[in-house]
């Protein structure tokens, strides 16, 4: 006799459904700030430092962001990646101290303060320098504080109270001391050579402060009349040059040719109406470039009198195209190995004050270097006829003067990539000015030592090695002087009698001591020269240098005032920045440290790409495609941003936007649901339930094998001594895949039945909970470096200790015995065959034959090796069916069959045994046993 439907017992209370206070919804924008408060109250960073004493150190030295404006998405990428690496190294057993820092001096801040002056009608030059510097310091302090809070909101852990800044007095003192080392070892010198110069900002710029944009330049073909040459037929002919900088013509002092280039001596016999060339002109032009020049200059019929090698021009002299207009000197015709036939005429006009090749050739042959251009980009009196005209507006006047002189061959315009200041966005010029340089090759051999240091450095990706190496190999001497006010002055005195810098260690020491207590402002105070020169020298006999040092020198010397003074090891284990820093911070840090210590300040360099929008475009306000980290944390939470970073290949450019963030939120939801199910299924779990590894079923041992594989990948990336150190790409996508595919869609799916319906003390249920306990501990630890807030929440949901934190733990120990490659291979095949079965079940479900796989008892026909993988009960359990049969076949094939019997009211399996129990007629025998055990 069975219960009537009205009398049927409700067994829902006997099913062990997951229970946890850990919510399905992350609600991260609200929960994360509370977690930050908890960590601060807990003194988490201080506790980590305390408990890590005696461990091997790991130091990622922070490349300082610029204290100017709110953080952008590139900042978030950079700091999150650093934070993940630091946290992972800490959990891998290292003492991973991290001192965040800021770059606070330099032109961008001056520019902002000057903008405020201009808006109020004030003249910056009328403001006392110490007052101006104080305003710059206040501006930098404000933005440093803003950025610090924004970094902390992203979950970035570090020694925020003891952060460093280049404008700290101790930092300024150390920077002055580093300059002093170059002064004393002879590497620092003052020289005249061309540098990138901003006429708007009135200062020299470093290569790293330059960006290239399309620019329309006027072009010029000019004629240089040959005055003397070894071959008589060349005298009276005109060498034709082509330039995209007509304004450099007043600075011309030579013409360069290629010794092996074929040049045509042509006689002009016809021209177009608009041509500036005259019939009868004899012109010298490179033969490969002649057709293009003919078209440009409007030349018609002509005769090539002969073709000659450039070497024939050795020793020739020519007239300046403005001869008779204040330029009545001879122009030397010289060989130049940089001359090509890629464009132009095969001849290059040489203005030694306005180009690197020009300057080097001029120095080789002793050419004069006239100072034709002022700081503001206007011509000086050394440019007769053009004084006061701005170089970017000078082409018209130069055209007219040359037209009058009869030396203008053609004019045009060209759109090309041209250097601009990244601050003012205005074009720059090459300009020879007296500047302070650090020699790359003389005496100290900084170039050779730097190249050797690059060879000894570990690069991620390795392509960075060649990039920075080629830059160092080709770079000129390092120009470290800037003509500005907000920075660390170059604390040098120059003898007015000899013109040589004063190399006196006592002066450097006095400067450093003063800067420690007063900051670099001490250099600008009344009486500074007498104070630092000391009582034995007359200040009137010395020039006090008022240039400030290049901010790249400052940031390049951060190792000197961040690492040893804080007891951190030198060199640092890792420098990590964007790929543009091969020419920026990595570069300047390398040169500075090699120059003062003889070694690189880093053991490894990791570079990441830039952040683009979803279409791969650069972000800009005008396009409306900017993703601000502040908005992401407000809408989604910092953990979503952190997950985006670690789900990306950071060695390449990354993309972000609304759709990508939605995808990351979905990936996060799956990971969170995995944690939630683990927590719910571990309710009331105690160590007494634990099953020894040797007694665990195969399925559980397979999960533990997968744990060893993931653990190995994480440890390899986290351990700074491993062969795969810092190789994080793909690690967290694999963890997500483990959660979504191996666990949720496979292991959890199979084990739900045992966890929900087995009696509490069954081996199968206890085994599953033993593994769930391991999974919870490992996943919380593995996720802690990335999902720092969520991992903590999931840890505390199970271990609610007021003093506890997952971030105080190391990665859990994984026994070597868990690794079982043979078992892994077996279960890979089981899953393949399971896929055949579930495919048939899905067809039946789609057809409406069944609603649940538990209504099925499918069969699998397969070769003996496949059939023997599991017994029929094992196949039914793995395929989540109520029955299963196996049969012999040459190739595997699955087929559907309905399960015979009645549905169990508790576990929902369809079995013939349901109804046999008198006490529980709606249950299967397993459920009857479980209910009785619970009741007992």
UniProtKB/TrEMBL annotation:
<protein>
    <recommendedName>
        <fullName>Isoleucine--tRNA ligase</fullName>
        <ecNumber>6.1.1.5</ecNumber>
    </recommendedName>
</protein>
<keyword id="KW-0547">Nucleotide-binding</keyword>
<dbReference type="InterPro" id="IPR009080">
    <property type="entry name" value="tRNAsynth_Ia_anticodon-bd"/>
</dbReference>
<feature type="binding site">
    <location>
        <position position="924"/>
    </location>
    <ligand>
        <name>Zn(2+)</name>
    </ligand>
</feature>
<feature type="domain" description="Aminoacyl-tRNA synthetase class Ia">
    <location>
        <begin position="35"/>
        <end position="656"/>
    </location>
</feature>
<dbReference type="InterPro" id="IPR009008">
    <property type="entry name" value="Val/Leu/Ile-tRNA-synth_edit"/>
</dbReference>
<keyword id="KW-0479">Metal-binding</keyword>
<dbReference type="InterPro" id="IPR002300">
    <property type="entry name" value="aa-tRNA-synth_Ia"/>
</dbReference>
<feature type="domain" description="Methionyl/Valyl/Leucyl/Isoleucyl-tRNA synthetase anticodon-binding">
    <location>
        <begin position="700"/>
        <end position="855"/>
    </location>
</feature>
<feature type="domain" description="Zinc finger FPG/IleRS-type">
    <location>
        <begin position="903"/>
        <end position="929"/>
    </location>
</feature>
<dbReference type="InterPro" id="IPR013155">
    <property type="entry name" value="M/V/L/I-tRNA-synth_anticd-bd"/>
</dbReference>
<keyword id="KW-0648">Protein biosynthesis</keyword>
<dbReference type="Pfam" id="PF08264">
    <property type="entry name" value="Anticodon_1"/>
</dbReference>
<dbReference type="InterPro" id="IPR033708">
    <property type="entry name" value="Anticodon_Ile_BEm"/>
</dbReference>
<dbReference type="InterPro" id="IPR002301">
    <property type="entry name" value="Ile-tRNA-ligase"/>
</dbReference>
<comment type="subunit">
    <text>Monomer.</text>
</comment>
<dbReference type="Pfam" id="PF00133">
    <property type="entry name" value="tRNA-synt_1"/>
</dbReference>
<comment type="function">
    <text>Catalyzes the attachment of isoleucine to tRNA(Ile). As IleRS can inadvertently accommodate and process structurally similar amino acids such as valine, to avoid such errors it has two additional distinct tRNA(Ile)-dependent editing activities. One activity is designated as 'pretransfer' editing and involves the hydrolysis of activated Val-AMP. The other activity is designated 'posttransfer' editing and involves deacylation of mischarged Val-tRNA(Ile).</text>
</comment>
<feature type="binding site">
    <location>
        <position position="927"/>
    </location>
    <ligand>
        <name>Zn(2+)</name>
    </ligand>
</feature>
<feature type="short sequence motif" description="'KMSKS' region">
    <location>
        <begin position="618"/>
        <end position="622"/>
    </location>
</feature>
<feature type="binding site">
    <location>
        <position position="621"/>
    </location>
    <ligand>
        <name>ATP</name>
    </ligand>
</feature>
<dbReference type="InterPro" id="IPR001412">
    <property type="entry name" value="aa-tRNA-synth_I_CS"/>
</dbReference>
<keyword id="KW-0436">Ligase</keyword>
<dbReference type="InterPro" id="IPR010663">
    <property type="entry name" value="Znf_FPG/IleRS"/>
</dbReference>
<dbReference type="InterPro" id="IPR023585">
    <property type="entry name" value="Ile-tRNA-ligase_type1"/>
</dbReference>
<keyword id="KW-0862">Zinc</keyword>
<comment type="similarity">
    <text>Belongs to the class-I aminoacyl-tRNA synthetase family. IleS type 1 subfamily.</text>
</comment>
<feature type="short sequence motif" description="'HIGH' region">
    <location>
        <begin position="65"/>
        <end position="75"/>
    </location>
</feature>
<dbReference type="InterPro" id="IPR014729">
    <property type="entry name" value="Rossmann-like_a/b/a_fold"/>
</dbReference>
<dbReference type="GO" id="GO:0004822">
    <property type="term" value="F:isoleucine-tRNA ligase activity"/>
</dbReference>
<keyword id="KW-0067">ATP-binding</keyword>
<keyword id="KW-0963">Cytoplasm</keyword>
<dbReference type="InterPro" id="IPR050081">
    <property type="entry name" value="Ile-tRNA_ligase"/>
</dbReference>
<dbReference type="Pfam" id="PF06827">
    <property type="entry name" value="zf-FPG_IleRS"/>
</dbReference>
<feature type="binding site">
    <location>
        <position position="577"/>
    </location>
    <ligand>
        <name>L-isoleucyl-5'-AMP</name>
    </ligand>
</feature>
<keyword id="KW-0030">Aminoacyl-tRNA synthetase</keyword>
<feature type="binding site">
    <location>
        <position position="904"/>
    </location>
    <ligand>
        <name>Zn(2+)</name>
    </ligand>
</feature>
<feature type="binding site">
    <location>
        <position position="907"/>
    </location>
    <ligand>
        <name>Zn(2+)</name>
    </ligand>
</feature>
């Amino acid at each position: 006799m069975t219960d009537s439907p009205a009398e049927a017992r409700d067994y829902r209370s006997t099913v062990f459904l997951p229970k946890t206070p850990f919510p399905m919804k992350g609600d991260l924008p609200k929960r994360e700030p509370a977690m930050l408060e908890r960590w601060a109250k807990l003194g988490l960073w201080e506790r980590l430092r305390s408990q890590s004493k005696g461990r091997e150190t790991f130091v990622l030295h922070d490349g300082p962001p610029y204290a100017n404006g709110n953080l952008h998405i590139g900042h978030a990428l950079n700091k999150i990646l650093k934070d993940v690496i630091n946290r992972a190294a800490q959990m891998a057993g290292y003492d991973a101290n991290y001192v965040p820092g800021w770059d606070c001096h330099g032109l961008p801040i001056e520019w902002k303060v000057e903008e405020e002056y201009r808006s109020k009608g004030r003249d910056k030059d009328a403001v006392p320098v110490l007052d101006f510097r104080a305003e710059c310091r206040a501006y930098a302090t404000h933005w440093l504080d803003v950025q610090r809070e924004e970094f902390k909101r992203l979950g970035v852990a570090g020694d925020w109270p003891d952060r460093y800044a280049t404008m700290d007095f101790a930092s300024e003192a150390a920077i002055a001391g580093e300059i002093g080392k170059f002064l004393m070892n002879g590497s620092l010198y003052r020289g005249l050579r061309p540098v990138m110069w901003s006429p708007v900002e009135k200062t020299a710029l470093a290569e790293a402060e330059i960006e290239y944009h399309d620019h329309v330049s006027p072009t010029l073909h000019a004629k240089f009349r040959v005055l003397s040459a070894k071959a008589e037929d060349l005298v009276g002919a005109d060498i034709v040059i082509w330039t995209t900088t007509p304004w450099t013509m007043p600075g011309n002092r030579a013409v360069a040719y290629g010794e092996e280039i074929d040049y045509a001596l042509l006689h002009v016999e016809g021209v177009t109406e608009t041509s500036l060339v005259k019939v009868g002109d004899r012109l010298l032009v490179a033969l490969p470039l002649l057709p293009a020049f003919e078209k440009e200059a409007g030349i018609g019929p002509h005769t090539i009198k002969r073709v000659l090698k450039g070497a024939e021009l050795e020793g020739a002299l020519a007239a300046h195209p403005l001869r008779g207009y204040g330029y009545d000197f001879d122009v030397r015709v010289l060989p130049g190995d940089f001359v090509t036939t890629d464009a132009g005429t095969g001849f290059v006009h040489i203005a030694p004050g306005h180009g690197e090749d020009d300057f080097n050739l001029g120095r080789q042959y002793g050419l004069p270097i006239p100072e034709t251009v002022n700081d503001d980009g206007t011509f000086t009196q050394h440019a007769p006829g053009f004084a006061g005209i701005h170089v970017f507006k000078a082409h018209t006047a130069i055209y007219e003067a040359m037209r009058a002189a009869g030396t203008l061959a053609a004019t045009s315009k060209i759109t090309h990539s041209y250097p601009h200041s990244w601050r003012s966005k205005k074009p720059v010029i090459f300009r020879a000015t007296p500047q302070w340089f650090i020699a790359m090759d003389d005496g100290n051999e900084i170039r050779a030592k730097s190249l050797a240091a690059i060879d000894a450095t570990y690069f991620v990706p390795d392509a960075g090695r060649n990039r920075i190496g080629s830059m160092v190999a080709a770079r000129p001497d390092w120009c470290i002087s800037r003509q500005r006010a907000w920075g660390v002055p170059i604390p040098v005195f120059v003898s007015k009698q000899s013109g040589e810098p004063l190399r006196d260690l006592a002066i450097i020491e006095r400067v450093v001591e003063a800067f420690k207590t007063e900051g670099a402002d001490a250099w600008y105070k009344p009486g500074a020269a007498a104070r630092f020169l000391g009582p034995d020298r007359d200040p009137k006999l010395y020039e006090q240098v008022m240039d400030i040092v290049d901010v790249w020198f400052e940031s390049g010397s951060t190792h000197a005032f961040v690492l040893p003074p804080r007891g951190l090891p030198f060199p640092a284990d890792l420098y990590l920045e964007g790929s543009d820093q091969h020419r920026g911070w990595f570069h300047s840090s390398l040169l500075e440290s090699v120059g003062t210590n003889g070694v690189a300040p880093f053991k490894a360099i990791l570079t990441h790409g830039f952040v683009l929008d979803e279409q791969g475009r650069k972000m800009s306000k005008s396009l409306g495609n900017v993703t601000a980290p502040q908005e992401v944390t407000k809408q989604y939470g910092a953990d979503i941003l952190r997950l985006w970073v670690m789900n990306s290949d950071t060695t390449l450019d990354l993309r972000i936007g609304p759709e990508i963030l939605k995808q990351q939120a979905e990936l996060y939801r799956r990971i969170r649901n995995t944690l939630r199910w683990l927590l719910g299924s571990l309710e009331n779990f105690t160590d007494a339930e634990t099953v020894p590894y040797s007694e665990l079923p195969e399925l559980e041992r397979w999960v533990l094998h997968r744990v060893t594989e993931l653990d190995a990948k994480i440890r390899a990336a986290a351990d700074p001594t491993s062969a795969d150190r810092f190789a994080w790409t793909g690690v967290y996508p694999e963890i997500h895949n483990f959660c979504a595919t191996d666990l949720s869609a496979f292991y959890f799916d199979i084990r739900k039945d045992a966890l929900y319906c087995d009696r509490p003390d069954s081996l199968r249920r206890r085994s599953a909970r033993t593994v769930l306990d391991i999974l919870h501990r490992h996943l919380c630890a593995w996720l802690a470096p990335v999902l720092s807030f969520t991992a903590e929440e999931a840890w505390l949901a199970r271990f609610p200790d007021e003093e506890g934190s997952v971030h105080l733990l190391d990665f859990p120990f994984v026994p070597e015995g868990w690794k079982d490659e043979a078992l892994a291979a077996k279960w890979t095949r089981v899953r393949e065959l399971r896929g055949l079965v579930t495919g048939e079940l899905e067809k039946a479900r789609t057809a409406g034959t069944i609603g649940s796989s538990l209504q099925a008892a499918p069969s699998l026909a397969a070769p003996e090796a496949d059939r023997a993988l599991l017994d029929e009960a094992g196949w039914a359990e793995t395929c989540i069916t109520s029955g299963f049969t196996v049969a012999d076949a040459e190739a595997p094939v699955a087929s559907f069959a309905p399960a015979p019997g009645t549905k169990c009211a508790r576990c929902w399996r369809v079995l013939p045994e349901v109804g046999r129990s008198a006490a529980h007629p709606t249950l299967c025998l397993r459920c009857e046993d479980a209910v009785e055990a619970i009741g007992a």
